[in-house]
Amino acid sequence: MQQASPASTMPATTYVGIGQIKPLGAKFELPDAGGGCGTHGGEGKASCGSSGGPDDMPAEIWEKVKNHPCYSEEAHHHYARMHVAVAPACNIQCNYCNRKYDCSNESRPGVVSQKLTPDQAVKKVLAVASEIPQMTVLGIAGPGDSLANPAKTFDTMRMLHEQAPDIKLCLSTNGLALPEQVDEIVKYNIDHVTITINMVDPAVGEKIYPWIFWKHKRVTGYEAAKILHEQQMKGLEMLTARGVLTKINSVLIPGINDEHLIEVNREVKKRGAFLHNIMPLISEPEHGTVFGLTGQRGPTAQELKAVQDACAGGANLMRHCRQCRADAVGLLGEDRSEEFTLDKIEEMEVVYDLDRRRAYQEKVETERQAQHDAKQEALAEAANLGVADDLKVLVAVATKGGGRVNEHFGHVTEFQIFEVSRSEALFVGHRRVDLYCQGGFGDDEQLPSVVRAINDCHAVLVAKIGACPKDELSSAGIEPVDQYVGEFIEKAALAWFNDYRARIASGALVHQDRGDAAIRQGAYTAAQAA
């Protein structure tokens, strides 16, 4: 790992702009051009973003995000995405990254089971879209960097633009090569771009990036971080000016950039970023990353939420990211890539029926509207409850999709976490857990780790739960709730919360704050992979 440069090189209270040095927090003037939430950079509308709806943003922006599961928290319950792994090369090295192949038991960025050519990727997309009509988004996110492999990336996008015009095209990049590729991005109607930005101060950046490959040579240390930062800021500004929606991914690394990400949030908002996704570091030693091997820990649940909450009022936050594999297929939180390996696609009769896809998505929209209406009804009931308080609690939910409480506790591999108050049921994250029920029997050795993962929650909403885990949860102070089977999540969470508040008001129970929870990120269990 590179050692930090002496403080005299550049004070940590500054960031490098495009050809200039500015103090952190300084006002940045964007050109009067399109992009960002309201098609302009700057302060923007606070409600426009991941949890926003058609009343929160211009119509042309809503059209871009309404069925994009990454850009709309509501859409992620109903619409699917897929990634194709056509970009193996990378032009930077991150201390949290180790791109590996044939790792079907891992779920984290940069991991794939099979690299594809552009022709293979297009065939796979058409096959998935014919089988999963709610798949609306195609992204290229590696396993390297999409713009370090521009020919493969844009060949894939060109063919899909021609053959599947209804699918939204996205790419993810570290931003080093972004400014030189903006024209190509616009040419193929790639109107969603994710940039990973972990710093706006190169003194922080050199602790994260050992080197970059720039102008045919390897550059290290502070200079590498400075070049990367300049390119990222320039690229973001250029995309904003061209009306491309941008999402910023940032990896929260405790002790390195945790507090600094608040400044990152401010600076990317000034440049027109639509969303900011602050993700926890995945640093298990078995992944072989520098941070994993040197003992750099990831954040706890409360540390992650605290940084996200501290960014309120800045760029709008995405909290439903699953840190997907570079070949993920399906709804966020699920991976159906094993159903669409190349050998299986060869046996499929692929018919890309645009009318069928549109008809199916109309049904999805009907279900989505029902979810929205149920949420509004529940909020109205909460407001009418004669218990005045500002109480907020976390609730874990077992779901297998559709925005409903519809999963057995023993089958859960991921809980969705909602912060519930009298005014909202806000999605704030997810927790991956070890599969408790294996082969029809509960594995009691796994149960304590499942409980620890949701230890900061006051209740867990499930479709069904056995006696043993019910007792274990109750002993830990987590209320198991199975009376809302099939209900929409927000309606169920608010209904439970209203009852919880009523029990507090009557003296039947005393509210107690919960401790922090362990987050298990980045891997499926061996049982799932089998």
Automatic annotation (TrEMBL):
Keywords: 4Fe-4S, Iron, Iron-sulfur, Lyase, Metal-binding, Nitrogen fixation, S-adenosyl-L-methionine. Gene3D superfamilies: Aldolase class I (3.20.20.70), Dinitrogenase iron-molybdenum cofactor biosynthesis domain (3.30.420.130). GO terms for molecular function: 4 iron, 4 sulfur cluster binding; lyase activity; metal ion binding. Its cofactor is [4Fe-4S] cluster. Pathway: Cofactor biosynthesis; Fe-Mo cofactor biosynthesis. It comes from the Bacteria. Residues 76-327 form the Radical SAM core domain. Involved in the biosynthesis of the iron-molybdenum cofactor (FeMo-co or M-cluster) found in the dinitrogenase enzyme of the nitrogenase complex in nitrogen-fixing microorganisms. NifB catalyzes the crucial step of radical SAM-dependent carbide insertion that occurs concomitant with the insertion of a 9th sulfur and the rearrangement/coupling of two [4Fe-4S] clusters into a [8Fe-9S-C] cluster, the precursor to the M-cluster. Belongs to the radical SAM superfamily. NifB family. This is FeMo cofactor biosynthesis protein NifB.
